[in-house]
Amino acid sequence: MSESVEALAGKVDALLEASVRRVPALAHELAYETDAGALLGVCRTLRDRAELRFEMLMDLAGVDYLHFGYDDWQTESATRSGFSRARLPQEAAPNPDAPGRFAVVYQLLSIAHNQRLRLKVRCPDTAEPAVDSVIDVWASANWFEREAFDLFGIVFRGHPDLRRILTDYGFIGHPFRKDFPLTGNVEVQYDPDKQRVVYRPVSIVPRVLVPKVIRHDHRYEPALRDPQVPR
User: Fold this and answer.
1) Are residues 71 and 54 in contact, defined by beta-carbon separation less than 8 angstroms?
2) What span, in angstroms and rounded, lies between the C-alpha atoms of 139 and 213?
3) What tens digit of pLDDT does each residue of 105-130 get?
4) So what's the pLDDT on residue 220?
5) Looking at residue 122, what is its pLDDT?
6) Are the beta carbons of 102 and 126 closer than 8 angstroms?
7) Once rounded to an integer, what is the mean pLDDT over residues 155-172?
């Protein structure tokens, strides 16, 4: 862990010890989690205190933890990163109604101190995921929150114009949720008879995507190598 990250963590812990919890991150990163009820107070402290000065919200994203820790493919060998993922022992299928399924992640930047911090808050209610809008803290959250609402169905209380931003007006569902079908539910086509665009049930056949797996290749067996051929 770098000295600058630890120094920043000490300042955050001193000011927000009762409101945030440090979570694991890479050696050069600093990440915290807070409760939904404390979100606005934590954000204002991160922005306003001279020791922190996180005056810029670089990004905001929704997260769906429905399949987190579950392994949906079986392979004998795969790369340690990129094509596989960590798996936790599970006795049952993921529960779509489990508390804390949805979360919002904020990427913050302090221009004054040239430091970054990641803040995460989980939505208490999975059936109707909602957290407070941070537009009054960082104005740049406006379209970010609309995007998370559109793709994940997370409601941001206090947002002045919360409506879809990427999908169509009549779109049903939230396409970044893990239980949303990869092929979607409808497809858009132009009907020459009606002379307008119409929605029809999707005609794409669902298929399971298989990750790239590095398999054993007999061509590189040591016994098959010609010792006379220079390497």
Assistant:
1) no
2) 44
3) 999 999 999 999 999 999 999 999 99
4) 65
5) 97
6) yes
7) 92
3-state secondary structure 10-79: HHHHHHHCCCEEEECCCCCCCEEEECHHHHHHHHHHHHHCCCCCCCEEEEEEEEECCCCCCCCCCCCCCC
* Amino acid at the residue 75: T
Residues 116 and 107: their CA atoms lie apart, in Å, by 7
Q: Helix, strand, coil shares of the chain as percentages rounded to 5?
A: 20, 25, 60
Residue with structure tokens 């050069």?
28
DSSP code string of 147-176: HHHHHH--EEET-TT---SSS-TT--S-TT
| pTM of full prediction above 0.90 | no
Nearest CA to 180 out of 153, 147, 210 is that of: 153
**Who contacts 100 (Cβ-Cβ below 8 Å, separation ≥6)?**
65, 122, 123, 124, 126
Tokens of 137: 């803290």
Amino acid at 170: G
CA neighbours within 13 Å on the CB side: how many for 184? 14
Nearest C-alpha neighbor of 53 from the set 92, 1, 94, 12: 12
Compute the distance between CA of residue 198 and CA of residue 11 in angstroms, rounded to an integer. Answer: 56
**Which two structure tokens, joined as six digits, stand for 95?**
């529960």
At 65, the pLDDT band (50, 70, 90 cuts) reads very high
